[in-house]
Write a structure and sequence with these properties.
single chain, alpha+beta, nine-stranded antiparallel beta sheet, 9 strands
Length: 171
């Protein structure tokens, strides 16, 4: 599955009928994120989802480009976040690292930060969170942990990383 740059995908979405009709009703909404499921090797398992946040009702609307390059609108949904967190506008001007470059940097850092872990499927989110625009990679490991590495979308540096055990080992 191929991926245009985020800027190209947003430009293509903006020209679509479904988006033009949606934005008429959702004036004031803003681009919040890109999301995609990934396979073990970092390949795309699905089409990219492009999320827009509508502050008036505090809901997310997600657009997905299908295999025929036509955008579809998913059902409006609640935001997955902590009560104290704010949904921030994705700062596209700070996205200087392509997905392909970010994926390579993730794989390099994964080997260094989590050398004994083997990964299964995962996902990536491009978002601005706490004023940092990041490629946020999360995978589940074969040892039943979430492995997360956040890379700066500006320069590719590691902003943060963590491993979260999904099984309580009675400690």
């Amino acid at each position: 599955m191929e991926f245009s740059s985020p800027k190209e995908l947003v430009a293509s979405l903006a020209k679509s009928i479904v988006f033009k009709n949606w934005v008429r009703v959702h004036s004031g909404a803003f681009l919040s994120h890109f999301f995609c499921q990934l396979d073990t090797n970092g390949g795309l398992k699905s089409g990219w989802e492009v999320g827009y946040f509508y502050p008036q009702n505090k809901k997310i609307s997600v657009f997905v480009q299908n295999d025929q390059k036509i955008f579809e609108l998913k059902m409006e949904d609640d935001v997955f976040k902590k009560e104290t967190d704010e949904v921030e506008q994705l700062q596209m001007n700070k996205v200087n690292i392509s997905f392909e470059k970010a994926r390579g940097l993730f794989q390099e850092n994964l080997a260094v930060l989590f050398p004994s872990e083997k990964i299964s499927d995962g996902f990536v989110i491009l978002q601005t969170f706490h004023k940092k625009t990041e490629w946020n990679f999360t995978y589940i490991s074969t040892s039943i942990k979430f492995l997360n590495i956040k890379l700066s979308a500006d320069d590719g540096s590691v902003d943060s990383y963590q491993a979260i055990d999904l099984v309580d080992k009675g400690k």
